[in-house]
Amino acid sequence: MRRGRGSPKTLNGVSRGLARALVAAASRRQDQQKRLGGLIYNLQRTDLDAGCTVDQDVEWLLGIGVFLIWNHEKLDFLEFLQYLQFKTLDVHIFKICIFDLRRGQHEGQELDKILFFFPMEAPFSAQLSVIGLCEGIITFTRIFSPEAACEVIEAERHSYVFYEAEPDIWMVMVMEKSKDNESFWRCDALRRILKEVHYLFMMFHGSLRSLLEKQPGGELARNRLYPFVLDYLTDFYVGKKLQMPSFRDSLRERGTVQTLTVSREVAIEVQSLITMLGYSCIGNTTCKSVILFHDLLVSTTLSPEDTTNIYTYAVLRLTPQALSSSTNSWSYLLKGTSATTVAVGFTAATGPVSDGSQQLSRDASSAGQGQGNNVPRPLQREKWFKGKDGFLTTDIWGAEVGSLVPVLPTVWLRETEENMCLCIYQHKNLTVVILIPACSLINEQGLSLAKQQLVENAYPKILNVEEKLSRGWGGENSYHVSGYRYLVIDGDRHISRASPPGKVTTLAKDSLLTLNKLREEVDLEKLRAQRTNPEHENDFEVCIRAKNNAWVIAKVTRGKELHMVLEKANETLLYATEAVEKFSNRYCEGAFSSD
Amino acid sequence: MASDPTSLPSPSDLSIPNPSPTEEERLATLNLEEPTGNHAPIPRPLSNGSSLSADFDTGNEIEVAEEELLGDSTDLAEGSSSHGGGGWREISEQDGEVASCSPSSSGYAGERGSSGASSGIEEVDDGVALQDDWVPGKRHLDEDDASVSWRKRKKHFFILSHSGKPIYSRYGDEHKLAGFSATLQAIISFVENGGDRVKFVRAGKHQVVFLVKGPIYLVCISCTEEPYEALKGQLELIYGQMLLILTKSVNRCFEKNPKFDMSPLLGGTDVVFSSLIRAFSWNPATFLHAYTCLPLAYSTRQAAGAILQDVADSGVLFAILMCKHKVVSLVGAQKASLHPDDMLLLANFILSSESFRTSESFSPICLPKYNPMAFLYAYVHYLDEDTHLTLLTTSSDAFYHLKECRLRIEAVLVKSNVLAEVQRSMLDGGLHVEDLPVDSSRRSRSISPQMTQENNISGSRPPHMALGGPAGLWHFIYRSIYLDQYVSSEFSSPINNSAQQKRLYRAYQKLFASMHDQGTGPHKTQYRRDRDYVLLCWITQDFELYAAFDPLADKVSAIKTCNRVCQWVRDLENEIFLLGASPFSW
User: Which Pfam families does the UniProt record give (chain B) (predicted)?
Assistant: First the structure.
């Protein structure tokens, strides 16, 4: 790794105290410059050494100063500059901020509100400006709508999507609209990203409020949030660019699970496996399990919400596709086009970096090393390995004191409000996630015993199920229905099924845009129905014959949704109706059929 | 207008004369309380010698549909008896009846003294405003942004200046809302400072829509769940209405003094804005951007058109004969074209200002789509209670000429029996879905005058018994793209009270926005079914059809019925449309 000469050393020596002082000075520009005199000089030197073009604005320097707080001198400064140079590519396209309105109430303490801000190098003035606007609008809308919080600010060049993750803790995603005519998206799809990352965070770290209560200074929460969200974002990189879902993803639904349909015979086998996993692992403790085949859910004994979380995590990091991260999963959760090159770890990179996700991951690692002890990064890439015994292991959670045995990861279940240890067994494309109550596992011996028992008891069944599933497996296009491009959502059970992404890409842009718009309307309609009479079933149906002659259809009935595009279809409405009817009868057990 | 000819857009090759008062002078005179003379080009319709702000009374004014009056939960007793009559206009008419039942003595609600916050809330929540003696123009003057009742109003409209000075607020006293207005300004300029422009904010069912027009900011805060496009269109119309009164040259005042206080210039025009805002919940013209005609026999309309044309040839820019909001005939000077939005705003201005009714008036107005910078001069005269003639000219001293023109027109109209026909048509109403011909053999009927009898028959059937047209057809709107005109059927059961009419209106509005999506529209067909309706929309190069059916209507027969409606309208187009005078295709 390259090392800067002289000045970087000086910079790396900037103490936390100094950085704090820099921040405190942010409101008084003249003062700033005096205090910053030396630092500025050094930075300029470094800048020249590194051959980077860096904004000389004082506020930018303040940003660096604070960045150093989180990095505790562990970051190589040159590397940081490279990162900045790289980051300028997408710095303005996308922002995420998380802030707590209960903090920083007094003037001069506004920075205290900020729990997370991406991009990290955004000057504090810019961060405060975004948060100031959001807070202002939240307060303003409460005048008229005290019961329903602000959802979105739509401006000519940006969309601000709001999600109140916990009372007074807000997550806001700011999307910049580009001029390439691709900037159409559904607010709800973006809000689901915020929701997903928050749910995953809660699963591993507990609520933000509890972290803030544990450590009122906020460092604990920030130290966990930064690496977590940055690691999460690595999955949205396509080459150098962060790519958030757009209208092209209208036939997917984040926050839902995609299931595998199995024959009755296989279902019985699976059921018997689940029963065995539930009772026979450790003495008389009841374990829970989630079983996946490829990226599809086979079975679960968790609540829909917890299932969604575990499933999402498994698809992101645990399935065979996720483990061999050179080829990304084809799952709906990920961009089909996203190709992440093999990671080179935090220290291995030399010269300019080519992949954004690596870089983010590197930020995350540097951000994660606060407080002297390592913060676990459950979403860090390439940290799960399949052992010879078929179990997946990771050192994300560190190792037991005095041994090399990794600590078992634990997750927090929303439904039962208990901590569970994650034990993952993988056989070919079958991934079995077993959740063992954390209190029942006293030590490492208990775990290996459990593993041993599992292999002894369940192995034949696992083999059997895997074989049968493989035999019936139709490949990633198995849920393609010729002539249809569709998405079916069962909102109550958090389940969806959709045309394979590869097939969706054959749709014309206009069809997708119309679909995106229609879905947005359906989102609003659903919210309206929830508000006006939550008990009533809200059934409605829209069929649009678009300018390009495609039929774009949405049907909501008894909590289920069907979205569909028929491109090569007859022009009559009756034809479209019939097509929906056929589809519903054949693939949805008549859920959307009219009678 | 002449003070700055270079800034005139040139939608026409019309040369605008150079009347004496310059733009600045005109603006300066706008806030004069005293008229400058009976027939001089005075800022408002002041022919009776008093200004608008002083002399409203509830008298015969009938445009009193109100947000709360039409609240969904209210079942107007009077509503069920409404049939026949003037289509969409009925909403306000019947509310007018409701309102006029209760005595009201003064022009402003504020003068009623205490309409306390608590009663206000009730009004908002359950539409109990029926007993409220309600008057045109501004109401709830005692409210401000601290009042709970004010916050619960379903739909606010604000106009403010870029420095944050309030210019107009639908509810509450502008002066008391200065702080709130400053907040709105702060939001807009905060986003603007970031190199962006805020379009809307959504929170639950509330939507805040922003529109920036140079130094004028317009904001709507609504929980009516209308689409953004619809609310934005409404703000555009409000801005247009403001221009109609002041012209765009008001911007110059802000160039000279950014803190310029504009509200006095609009003094007394509250009634114009509140009437326009009410139109946003009953008048399809506000989102269709088309106008509608009073059904008349072809020859009758021809006769009216001929005399108007005669006048237009003598130096009148536009001659418009209307009955309430419906056009009887319309003629423009060669190559001059009148935008449907301008017609809407002009008609609203005339119909909402009581003083036009009392005697002939000559008033400067601006047609924002025609030329936002210049004033035209409108000679307005009511030929009978509902029928009014408007003659527009560029010349500020044409009053006597226009008066002569009017006398000529009036004489011809009376002589050729046009006015009587107009009155009869008003009574008969327009198309009734119950009369939709079952097969093509009945196609050739006309609705007037032969249809009068049939209409009487349909009108005489008990309204509660009527179950709409064939296949569960409840209502339709047909818009001719080529003509810039639309026709909508009369309401029939079960759309028989104002709350239901307004709900249907909003459903159409949503359908329209969905069909005309900016990025991908217009779509060709749309079928939409929810708990309230089955809606069908069909757009071709020539027309747009919006039809509402019973929510249980059968798809196949609904489609057939739509085809029949289109055929029916085409068969009747000589009578329901103004042909050969398409104002936009001269």
Answer: Fuz_longin_1, Fuz_longin_2, Fuz_longin_3
CA A465 to chain centre: 30
pLDDT at B220: 97
B204 CB neighbours in chain A (<8 A) are 145, 147-149, 151, 527, 531
B246 and B295: one domain? no
A543: buried, middle or exposed (CB in 10 Å: 19+, 13-18, 0-12)?
A: buried
Burial classification of residue A506, based on how many CB atoms lie within 10 Å of its CB (0-12 exposed, 13-18 middle, 19 or more buried): exposed
How sure is the predictor about B215, in pLDDT bands with cuts at 50, 70 and 90?
A: very high
Q: Which domain-ending residue is among B255, B280, B305?
A: B280
pLDDT interval class at B148 (50, 70, 90): confident
DSSP-based three-state secondary structure for A392: strand
Give the chain A residue nearest B193 (alpha carbons).
Answer: A129
B396 shares its domain with B412: yes
Would you say residue B83 lies in a domain? no
Question: pLDDT value at position A398?
Answer: 76
Same domain, B249 and B160: yes
Q: What separation in angstroms does the CA of B402 have from each of A126, A148, A394, B406?
A: 62, 56, 91, 6
Give ipTM to 2 decimals. Answer: 0.81
Which residues of chain A does B514 touch, with a Cβ-Cβ cutoff of 8 Å?
Answer: 517-518, 521, 542, 544
**B192 and B206 both lie in a single domain:** yes
Secondary structure, 3-state, A408-475: CCEEECCCCCCEEEEEEEEECCEEEEEEEEHHHCCCHHHHHHHHHHHHHHHHHHHHHHHHHHHHHCCC
The answer to whether residues B189 and B161 touch, using CB atoms and an 8 Å cutoff, is no
Give the total number of structural domains in chain B. Answer: 3
Report which secondary-structure segment, H or E, holds B331: strand B326-332
Chain A positions in Cβ-Cβ contact with residue B206 (cut-off 8 Å): 141, 144-145, 148
Measured CA to CA in angstroms, residue B132 lies from B68, B103, B531 at distances of 10, 9, 32
Nearest by CB to residue B201, choosing from A153, A524, A538, is A153
Per the domain annotation, does B248 fall within a domain?
A: yes
Choosing among B73, B520, B544, B563, which should be mutated to test the A contact, i.e. which has the most A CBs within 10 A?
B520
How wide is the angle at C-alpha A227 spanned by C-alphas A224 and A229, nearest 5°? 95
Residue A37 has pLDDT above 80, yes or no: no
- Judged against a pLDDT cut of 60, whether residue B497 lies above it is answered with yes
- How far apart are the C-alpha atoms of B318 and B367, rounded to whole Å? 11
Structural domain span for residue B443? 429-576
For residue B59, being part of any structural domain is answered with no
Query: Which domain-ending residue is among B384, B401, B425?
Result: B425
Answer whether B204 sits within 8 Å of A145, measured CB to CB. Answer: yes
In a domain, B461, yes or no: yes
**Residue A63 reports pLDDT greater than 90:** no
B170 with B275, same domain: the answer is yes
Mean per-residue pLDDT for A520-546? 87
pLDDT, averaged across chain B = 77
* pLDDT tens digit sequence for A323-369: 886 444 434 344 333 333 322 222 223 333 345 666 666 666 666 55
For residue B334, what is the domain's CATH number?
3.30.450.30
Average pLDDT over residues B350-377: 93
Q: What is the mean pLDDT of residues A24-29?
A: 38
Contacts of A377 (CB under 8 A, 6+ apart): A227, A228, A231, A364, A365, A368, A383, A396
